[in-house]
């Protein structure tokens, strides 16, 4: 917020939202607005800022002046003390302030990730490859590794390896006796993964299964390994998630975890106007998990969204 002369300037970064329960016009009243630019659009209680750079440096700055509105302004200011948050829209949630991960804030999160050097190198090598956006983010990998550590997991499965970023993060924290079954159908990306398992000195922990993940999981079950795994991570063909989940639920022991990536699908799951097959499939699977009493669940808005399921 900037204070200048007798005017009060409301500064919002691009994409900032105001809590829907505090529509500015309603809160401040029309008399507060001496000049409300047409570049503002208030919809669903949020101010949608259209990009127009005014006189402020480094921020998208939109100013409107008003007087005699200090008390109301204070209310607004309290709920908008930093522009980098959104507030849950429903009063039933106690007007909880929920962080909105802007690029600047996400940079900050990444600066607070302890990414092992070998993972950084793998990420860098993968960056120039086709599909590099598929790998989990460093903060996601760190969470996966921490879950494995908290569980004291020894036996893990990953469905969808690509060049190995998440599997390497898991293998790095497994004990020497640990075992990770890594399922991937693409030999070329697996070559990169195997190179990094080698470089990191964890090859002996990783059992690479080249082929369709369904076949690999079914053969583990046929091999009598049901109930013997502690942790599984699903990050492959999204429309197959439910099938992977059912097989992994057999393979994981009671108390073990199954983590599913991309459950928010770039936000499309929450958009009723999106009806493409992948979105529908992820949305339906999320709903099924919500109702599935065989597992406890926690949907975590990290990366593209991960749901952590604990087998009960
Ligand atoms: C999102 S990427 C995995 C990213 C990886 N977890 C990481 O963090 O780098 C998905 C991978 O799943 C693989 N995949 C897709 N369908 C598969 C299937 N049916 N069986 C095995 N692998 C599959 C793709 O080849 C791709 O490499």
Gyration radius, rounded: 24 Å
Helix content: 25-40%
Annotation field: number of helices:
10
Shape: globular
For the biggest sheet, the summary is: 7 strands, mixed
- Enumerate the distinct ligands: S-adenosylmethionine
The number of domains: 2
What is the highest CATH level, the class of the largest domain?
Answer: Alpha Beta
Spatially, the strands of the biggest sheet line up as: 9-8-7-10-11-13-12
Q: Detail the poorly predicted runs.
A: 1-68
Topology, number of strands: 13
CATH topology of the largest domain: Rossmann fold
Beta content comes to 15-25%
User: How would you spell out the order of helices and strands?
Assistant: EEHEEHEEHHHEHEHEHEHEHEE
Overall mean pLDDT: 81
State the distance separating the first and last CA atoms: 49 Å
CATH architecture of the largest domain: 3-Layer(aba) Sandwich
CATH superfamily of the largest domain: Vaccinia Virus protein VP39
Quaternary structure annotation: single chain
What class, by secondary structure content?
alpha/beta
Protein name: Caffeoyl-CoA O-methyltransferase
Family: Belongs to the class I-like SAM-binding methyltransferase superfamily. Cation-dependent O-methyltransferase family.
InterPro entries: Cation-dep_OMT, SAM-dependent_MTases_sf, SAM_O-MeTrfase
Pfam family, one: Methyltransf_3
Describe this structure in words.
There is one protein chain. The protein is α/β, with parallel strands linked by helices. 34% of the residues lie in helices and 21% in strands. It has 2 domains: 2-107, no CATH class; 114-311, Vaccinia Virus protein VP39 (Rossmann fold). The chain contains 10 helices and 13 strands. The strands form 4 sheets. The chain has a 7-stranded mixed beta sheet with strand order 9-8-7-10-11-13-12, sandwiched between helices. A two-stranded antiparallel ribbon has the order 1-2. Strands 3-4 form a two-stranded antiparallel sheet. Helix 5 (138-151) runs parallel beside helix 6 and helix 6 runs parallel beside helix 7. The longest helix has 15 residues, at 277-291. The radius of gyration is 24 Å and the shape is globular. It binds S-adenosylmethionine. S-adenosylmethionine is lined by residues 134-136, 160-163, 165-166, 183-186, 189, 212-213, 235-237. Keywords: Methyltransferase, S-adenosyl-L-methionine, Transferase. Pfam families: Methyltransf_3.
